TrEMBL record:
Keyword Membrane included in the entry's annotation: yes
Residues annotated as transmembrane: 12-36, 56-75, 87-109, 129-153, 165-185, 197-215, 255-272, 292-317, 358-384, 396-422, 428-448, 455-475, 495-517, 587-609, 621-646
Species of provenance: Candida oxycetoniae
Compartment(s) of residence: Membrane
One GO cellular component, as annotated: plasma membrane
Matches recorded under PROSITE patterns: NA_SOLUT_SYMP_3
Molecular function, one GO term: putrescine transmembrane transporter activity
Membrane protein topology class: Multi-pass membrane protein
Any Pfam family: SSF
Entry keyword Transmembrane helix: yes
Entries under Gene3D superfamilies matching the protein: Sodium/glucose cotransporter
Location, primary (coarse class): membrane
Protein's UniProt name: DUR3
Length: 721
């Protein structure tokens, strides 16, 4: 690990942020959970913990996508790429990691339409292919969560150590405490709400850095000044593989290689990370695809603009008296992602260092909370409920969810400490991702999208592709450099080989195995009976009695009447539900068209002509480029900060009204309002969604028919193969 000569902040600042700010977020989320329970009747059952009542709107889904996809690596690795390869570094990261979330919108639609009761995508795998295949994808799903969490902790701890001198081991052990606490208390709803708060803070800090670099700071202060410094730097220290050695060109060999590695690796971390399916299943049916498409467009300027700003600020200020280290960074420090924190300190002194510390902490904790919920749902429903206790009730399942969150958090803390002492950097883990998990991407997606993929293709493709990818990675290293070492394995060509084999080899195995062993012709309606919800009426009743003790004379307990109220409202909701299902079916084609168009734009139409032309940005073109991303970041502000508040204005107003009535001694008005507006209570809405999602919809001659599915867990027949 790198040895830092100077730290801009004291160790106390690191502990203040990790422990102090973490405690504030944990306490705030616990308070929010209480308020939602009291004023909106949100009861944290096992289903609620995993799916938030399947009613989250598109604005919050967008904010959750932005926050979950903004890892420490998002900010640190993208900035490192700009520092190493110039302006294409920002786009190679941003473009290469946006398309996966955009394309995932299509997968989200089909998953919600075909398995409305699912909590994880692995449940779909089990319902379709059985135990053996399920075990394969549990391994790859958990491997994805482990790699992502390891990157979060290693990158976050290195940054905190660089800025404050805090020991990385202490950081690894403490940084996960806050997200573990609020995830246990509030489940996926807590994760989504804190994602929103984290997004507000991160985007605000990025805008502060942007205005400072491009407009107000006396050290830089305008795109023209930065362009002149970077142009001169390209002449003095030309970048190998870049057109004319310039930092101001898309033609970058190393940047192009990273572009491909980034695309490959991030397919795995989206399509195999149950955290993204968690949010898709938590979304209101018609909000899922909108949330992911709009969220991906809102996410793009975060790495693109932040890395452009801080990467060029680092290049411009590294050889000045403002640079905190007093010397250029070493290769190890660059690999650890320390360009951004040093640039922030050079740009704004201790204030900038403090801002980058908070921003990285927000990125680490928001993404980690998503990983915690992802692992807890896999542990609870795919391991415990599937193989240990199939008849577990809601109370037992939520206890397992809580336990798995805590265990995973501190197993990963120990793993991150081991990576620190093994000198494994975040950058290495980021590029290794695709080699390890890329082989399962295509077959897992086809499990949801294609009825023809057979058991053999789904089961054998991931291990075959991964084994070949690792072999190609090692053989390329040995052939090209003569020995297999950590540094040689981290070389561009070596990582590129392993990543490409992992992602593309399934294009051979999936169709080949499907042809050899015959197509499956799976009936999607079987998912409606094989994936079942947990019957939690007893837990709802107990929660009611606990909350309403001593108050029964004033008001009949609302929660004890939830099922009755929900049943009364069910018929009027059926029409809306059937319309949503038809909307999902119609939306799939439109979503695929939009996703493919955006993908081609970001991967081909925009970057390739600029790469091939070897164009060097002029001062005016560069200024326009900066202005475009300024405008784009304000779209992000609207989509993930302003719009969720507007969408949730009614809930916010009712909660504020309830708090006012409680504070002014008018609790009787709150009770009366809740009795007279049962349809607005979250617990009632959740019960309606539960009953509707256990109602299969058939459309015959244009007429909508319903058939009750109930809580059935039928035995898989041999036709699955």
């Amino acid at each position: 690990m790198a040895v830092v000569d100077f730290v801009p902040l004291p160790q106390s600042a690191g502990y203040a942020v990790i422990v102090g700010m973490g405690a504030v977020f944990a306490a705030g989320m616990m308070l929010t959970t209480y308020l939602l329970r009291r004023y909106n009747k949100e009861i944290i059952t096992a289903e609620e913990f995993a799916t938030a009542g399947r009613s989250v709107k598109s604005g919050l889904i967008s904010a959750a996508v932005v926050s979950s996809w903004t890892w420490a690596a998002t900010l640190l690795t993208s900035t490192t790429q700009v520092y190493k390869n110039g302006i294409f570094g920002s786009c190679s990261y941003a473009f290469g990691a946006t398309v996966q979330v955009t394309l995932f919108a299509s997968l989200a639609i089909k998953a919600k339409e075909r398995a409305p009761s699912a909590r994880t995508y692995l449940e779909i795998v089990k319902a379709r292919y059985g135990t053996a295949t399920h075990m394969v994808y549990i391994f790859w799903g958990l491997a994805t969560n482990i790699l992502v969490t390891a990157m979060l902790l290693t990158g976050g701890s290195a940054t905190i150590s660089d800025l404050t001198g805090m020991h990385p081991v202490a950081s690894c052990l403490l940084v996960g405490l806050s997200p573990t606490v609020y995830s246990i208390f509030g489940g996926i709803k807590a994760t989504i709400l804190t994602d929103y708060a984290h997004t507000v803070i991160m985007v605000t800090i990025i805008i502060i850095f942007a205005f400072s670099t491009w407009a107000t700071n006396d050290k830089l202060g305008s795109p023209g000044v930065v362009w002149e410094i970077i142009t001169q730097l390209g002449k003095e220290k030309p970048v190998e593989g870049n057109a004319q050695g310039s930092y101001l060109t898309f033609h970058s060999r190393s940047g192009g290689i990273f572009f491909v590695i980034n695309i490959v690796g991030n397919f795995g971390t989206v399509f195999l990370d149950n955290g993204y399916f968690n949010k898709a299943f938590a979304a209101n049916p018609v909000s899922a695809y909108k949330g992911y498409i709009l969220g991906s467009l809102a996410w793009l300027p975060i790495p693109a603009f932040c890395s452009l700003t801080m990467g060029f600020a680092a290049l411009a200020l590294e050889h000045t008296e403002y640079w905190p280290l007093g010397r250029p960074m070493t290769a190890d420090e660059v690999a650890e992602g320390l360009v951004l924190p040093n640039a922030s300190a050079a740009l704004l002194g201790k204030g900038g260092a403090c801002l980058s510390l908070i921003m990285i902490y927000m990125a680490v904790t928001s993404a980690m909370s998503s990983e915690l919920i992802a692992v807890s749902t896999i542990t609870t429903y795919d391991i415990y409920r599937s193989y240990i206790n199939p008849n577990a009730n809601g109370k037992k399942l939520i206890w397992i969810s809580h336990l798995s969150c805590g265990i995973f958090a501190y197993v990963m803390a120990g793993f991150a400490v081991g990576l620190y002492y093994a000198n494994v950097s975040m950058g290495f883990l980021y590029e290794l991702m695709g080699v390890i998990i890329g082989g399962a991407v295509l077959s897992s997606a086809m499990t949801i999208l294609s009825s023809r993929q057979n058991w053999h293709a789904a089961t054998f493709t991931p291990p075959i592709a991964t084994a070949l990818a690792i072999m190609a990675w090692l053989v390329c290293c040995k052939t090209k450099f003569g020995s297999v070492t950590y540094d040689n394995l981290f070389e561009d060509d070596v990582m590129l080989t392993g990543n490409v084999v992992a992602l593309l080899f399934p294009l051979i195995t999936v169709p080949l195995l499907t042809i050899i062993f015959k197509q499956q012709h799976f009936d999607w309606k079987l998912l409606e009976t094989r994936i079942t919800r947990v019957d939690e009426d007893e837990e709802l009743m107990e929660a009611t009695q606990s909350e309403n003790q001593g108050d029964s004379e004033k008001l009949a307990p609302i929660k004890s009447q939830i099922s009755v109220i929900a049943s009364g409202l069910l018929e009027q909701e059926r029409g809306r539900f059937s319309q949503e299902q038809k909307t999902l079916r119609k939306a799939f084609t439109r979503t695929v068209i939009v996703c493919v168009a955006l993908t081609l734009s970001l991967l081909v139409i925009w970057p390739m002509p600029m790469y091939g032309s070897k164009y060097i940005f002029s001062k005016h073109f560069f200024t326009g480029w900066v202005v475009v991303f300024f405008i784009w970041i304000f779209y992000t502000v609207f989509q993930v900060i302003v719009y969720p508040v507007w969408e949730g204005r009614k809930s916010l107003a009712s909660t504020a009204r309830g708090i006012y009535w409680d504070c002014t001694g008018q609790t009787h008005k709150l009770r009366a309002w809740q009795n007279s507006h049962p349809e607005q209570m979250h617990a009632v809405q959740s019960q309606i969604q539960a009953q509707l999602s256990n109602t299969a919809i058939d459309v015959v001659n244009g007429k909508v028919l319903y058939r009750e599915v109930g809580f059935i867990d039928d035995t898989l027949s041999d036709e699955k193969k």
